[in-house]
From TrEMBL:
It comes from Sheuella amnicola. Pathway: Lipid metabolism; fatty acid beta-oxidation. The keyword Cell membrane does not apply. This is 3-hydroxyacyl-CoA dehydrogenase. CDD domains: crotonase-like. Keywords: Fatty acid metabolism, Isomerase, Lipid degradation, Lipid metabolism, Lyase, Multifunctional enzyme, NAD, Oxidoreductase, Peroxisome. GO terms for biological process: fatty acid beta-oxidation. The lineage of its organism: Bacteria, Pseudomonadati, Pseudomonadota, Betaproteobacteria, Burkholderiales.
Amino acid sequence: MIQPVFQPCSDTVSYAQVEHIAMLRIDNPPVNGLGDTVRAGLYQGVERAQSDSSIKAIVIFGSGKMFSGGADIRQFNTPKANAKPMLRQVIRKITEMTKPVIAAIHGTALGGGLELALGCHYRVATDEAKLGLPEVNLGLLPGGGGTQRLPRLIGVEAAAKMILNASVVKGQRALDLGLIDAVIKGDLIDGAIDFAKGIVAKGEITHPVIDQRHLVRSESTIAAIRGSLNKKARNARAQSAALDCVAYAGQGDIEAGLDYERSRFEELVSGPESKSLRHIFFAEKQALKVDNLPPEVQASDIRSVGIIGAGTMGSGIAMAFANAGFTVTLCELNQAALDRGMAAIHKNYDITAAKGKLTQQDIQKRLDCIKTSTDMEALSGADLVIEAVFEDMAVKKSVFTELDRVCKQGAILASNTSRLDVNEIAAVTRRPQDVIGLHFFSPANVMKLLEVVRGDKTSNEVIATCMSMAQKIGKTPVLVGVCEGFVGNRMLTPYWREAWFLLEEGASPQQIDSALTRFGMAMGPLAMADLAGLDINWATRKRLAPTRRADLRYSKVADRICEAGRFGQKTGAGFYKYEQGSRTPQPDPAVDDIIRACANEAGIARRSISDDEIVERCMLALINEACWILQEGIAQRASDIDVVYVNGYGFPAWRGGPLFYAETIGWGVVLDKIKQLERAQGGHWTVSRDLTSRVN
Ligand code: 3HC
Ligand code: NAI
């Protein structure tokens, strides 16, 4: 094909003519977002093609990696988002054309990108192209006609499911659904031009998106889908509103449907949930970036992974790597421990298979990736070794001394410790530059978060490799520094402290947990402590007791519960009691007695506590500690802490994480309230410079 000469329609859209076809190219990196200049350029280009009598058809395509990733999310809640022409006007212009308009899709067509394509008369795509309307992931609904046009094209049920699940379909499947008109093999643009010529030769435009065939009355379908929605989902409000819009499409008048869709979109885009979910979307992308990494630093390739310890964490970590196709060698003290670990892995896969999420072949493929050994020499060729043995510094040090002896030069030696000092562990090796913390969360094959713990001597190459490896196994990595508990667990300490203080002051475990789950936490702090195992933190408290400030209030509630042999779910009793084989927390009068005794000993007069006070004090404890973490440079940025809490600790994504939440309350209010608590409780609430600087 002769290379066409493109002329600008706007900063981000250009126009060229190939024989009697007008080519409109979107060129707005990184994702060809449909910002104000793209919409203006498309509008102008379509108008130009309409008025040029030599043009018989128009092909719209994207440059770079994709057709379009959708509306430019960064422009939302700014004047540019509503600058004319809006996407609806661009699409109206297209639908009014007397010449066929074809969207030629490669890479992805998501959100507004797919809605633009739905507004065209025809869509062609490569077989690899991914098409979807994922707006609900951002707490939004398709606001450029998607809820009205998709049902008309592929039917109400299929459209509702695609929109509510934010599912993405690829070329051939999109063709089968009727979402596109052709899959193009070979060069997309040549194929799209040939397709356009074929349409011109037929001499007529069909416009299936205004075809009413699929709009059969669908109340029962909609009701069934509505009944299946999870009301506690992070995007529950958006899903419900999107379904309302799809239901509205069934009424038949597309213009009324578009008006309705727009009003619901506006409601969501200006609401707090979507703002929070968009914050988390960008925060997760930002978390991948390592500040001040010299450009020449390259991530190396990890091919084989060794894991030491096949307990709760080691077996989960092995699955996380095997699921992504990595070869794993799982190493234990003896065959019996290995057998227990492998049995846990088999059981986990069987549960997933029983839910229909994996076939026996999938499972076998994953199991084939996992080798076992009782000899550390088996790890001599591994590119990365992750230690997940007992949380005991002496044991960790002996494992790392041995790893230093057996592992090849350049291998990364990682610890999954949850709280121990990675620098102290690194110091027993002759290669501290290759030592790093990789703090997975339980269950490690499921939880997205990975704290990548940079030691004082960890090399940039090792950090870059771990950040990249984490993404390959589907994790969301956050780079953190060394301190007691890193980011996530460190913040739990004051969070739990406040929960225990509130118990002494008059709240019950059930009241504390239900107040915080109503706030949106996946679990209350006390039920979560029971799940994690109370003995682990008890051991930490004992280890840190010599450094504890004697002048500060200390609650003995958790210690007393542990002294009674109550370590949480694993012993059938903790802050709650648990029936045999059940994970449901039941209130336990024995715990109330322990709490009352502790309050008496400490001379605390118990009172009635409001749910608001519970939420406020627990949240302020998280926020205050987060600011200290930032001041000490343990986290790179505030949004990283939000990513940690949303992905690892069940913080409601629709509140954006503890620091985004603080912003929504207002930093001035946060500071005032923390100062009040400091006056009441003293040094637990000392304010960091980071926090005060946020107010000014
Ligand atoms: N608007 C603005 N910026 C976007 C964006 C968007 N729609 N999508 C991605 N970006 C940014 C990312 O933040 C990142 O920025 P950075 O380089 O500064 O960190 C950059 O583009 C590249 O993004 P990725 O690293 O994610 O690139 P990938 O190639 O891995 O993935 C993608 C590309 C599949 C498009 C992915 O970015 C994605 O899923 N984006 C969101 C898609 C989406 O939700 N679209 C719907 C938007 S809402 C809408 O369209 C409303 C409409 O109905 C009116
Ligand atoms: P676990 O007790 O379930 O498993 C530890 C395993 O290590 C046991 O199977 C034991 O036989 C094995 N082991 C001990 N010494 C060994 C050695 N020298 N060589 C080979 N194997 C050895 O412990 P868990 O819960 O899996 O914890 C492991 C590590 O992960 C700890 O550092 C813990 O702090 C950390 N962690 C635990 C989390 C959890 O929720 N359980 C969450 C995040 C981190």
